[in-house]
Write a structure and sequence with these properties.
single chain, Purple Acid Phosphatase, chain A, domain 2, 6-stranded mixed sheet, about 35% helix, about 20% strand
């Protein structure tokens, strides 16, 4: 039996206001205005959600901004949204993270008095009167500098007896893949504080790390590129008179990234592959219920259609784009198409197992799946990396050209082309 609700709050992080979305803006017909305004509209959705659900307070766990502002408009927009929360008598407790650390922001604006940005000098407990009335203690600390490698949790205040204690922290924990290891700490470090809830930021994928107590990453409020796929938003937290915690994810994003995997095994013509794509995309469009989608398509499998696809890739990519606009009703766009098909005869295990092509397939597979070999290959490209300008050094997804993940993608793209051509040359 549930207890009676005592208070409710929103936990969000990584707003990255005015951070650009990457991957679509160069395409004719792409929703440029939606791309440009997405992070702001996501914040507006967050504020409206807080007001509609009558939350008692809002927690923002770092990276409110993407970096120092180009002008004051970014800060002015944030102030305007916080003022909306003030009008609804909703206090906001925030910390800065690696992207908006104290020494990175050269501009500043006075925030509404309902917003308390916790100090970067030392951990602090929020002072908002409404929190004290609710019996809530929020402890946290902002980043003083972008590269914060100390375990900040060790200095967090002791829990306050008789209160619901919340830790507000921007952290990678002990190394989350794809994120810089900032403010590293373990779940045991967090548990050791005896708090009732840990409101984390920095990791852009929503996840509940632990439930006793709750240790939560809400993810970012708006995905910015294909590596931030799926729904993005915040967590709505209910706490009852027994101290029980109930968490509920709430989407705030206005533009969503997704992957569309198409298995082309056995497809005879390029048109067959298009039909398979249309079915897969229709499912995605229904799943996301009208939210605009940017889709990365990956076509895999052994098929006769392979020759058509690789002979005229630009033609087929534009066919995919046109079909996406049709199926999505102008609400779905193709970010990129990757053809990883092979001729249907190439994967004949009997023919290849003992031959040189079989050895090549096995070698490429081992290289893609072995982290040590990928790291060694990346190290060999270090000298080349030093000679390249940043715009060349980074791919469209922002991955460094000697990043193991980028190398894995390249190897996956090269394999079917290489094997297909070699196989064709060896056929009688």
């Amino acid at each position: 039996m549930k207890g009676s609700l005592v208070f409710r709050f929103l936990h969000a992080a990584d707003l990255h206001l005015d951070s650009p979305l990457k991957g679509l803006e160069q395409y004719e017909g792409a929703p440029v205005d939606e791309i440009r305004e997405a992070s702001r509209r996501a914040l507006t959705n967050l504020v409206e959600l807080a007001i509609d659900r009558q939350v008692d307070f809002v927690l923002l766990a770092g990276d409110l901004y993407d970096s120092d502002w180009k002008d004051y408009n970014t800060g002015l927009f944030f102030v305007s949204q916080m003022a909306c929360l003030r009008a609804a008598d909703i206090p906001v407790i925030a910390i800065s993270g690696n992207h908006d650390a104290a020494n990175k922001m050269t501009k500043s604006l006075r925030l509404p008095d309902n917003v308390e940005l916790l100090s970067h000098n030392r951990p602090k407990t929020a002072t908002a009167q409404k929190l004290r009335e609710l019996g809530v203690a929020v402890h946290g600390r902002s980043f003083a500098k972008p590269a914060e490698f100390d375990n900040l949790v060790l200095d967090y205040p002791e829990k306050r007896s008789g209160m619901f204690n919340i830790g507000l922290l921007h952290t990678s924990l002990t190394g989350v893949e794809g994120h810089e290891p900032y403010a590293p700490c373990s779940v045991d470090d967090l548990r050791g504080k005896g708090y009732d809830y840990w409101a984390l930021g920095h990791v852009h994928q929503q996840q509940i790390v632990c439930r006793e107590p709750y240790v939560v990453f809400p993810g970012n409020t708006q995905g910015r590129h294909i590596r931030e796929a799926g729904p993005k938003g915040c967590y709505l937290i209910n706490v009852d008179d027994r101290g029980s915690v109930e968490v509920e994810f709430q989407a705030t994003d206005v533009f969503r990234w997704e992957r569309c995997d198409v298995s082309a095994d056995g497809a005879t013509r390029g048109e067959d592959v298009l039909e398979l794509f249309s079915e897969a995309l229709a499912q995605l469009v229904r799943k996301h219920a009208g939210v605009p989608l940017a889709v990365r398509v990956e076509v895999v499998g052994a098929c006769r259609a392979h020759e058509q696809l690789v002979a005229e890739p630009i033609t087929w990519i534009n066919q995919f784009r046109a079909m996406a606009l049709d199926i999505g009703g102008g609400n779905a766009w193709v970010e990129k198409v990757k053809f990883r098909t092979v001729p249907d005869r190439v994967l004949d295990a009997t023919a290849l197992a003992d031959g040189p092509l079989g050895e090549l397939i096995q070698c490429l597979h081992e290289l893609r799946t072995d982290e040590q070999q990928l790291a060694a290959l990346a190290a060999e490209l270090e000298e080349l990396k030093k000679k390249l300008p940043d715009d060349v050094l980074r791919g469209q997804d922002g991955l460094l050209l000697n990043d193991p993940e980028w190398l894995r993608e390249v190897l996956g793209s090269v394999e079917p082309l290489l094997i297909g051509r070699l196989r064709e040359e060896t056929l009688p």
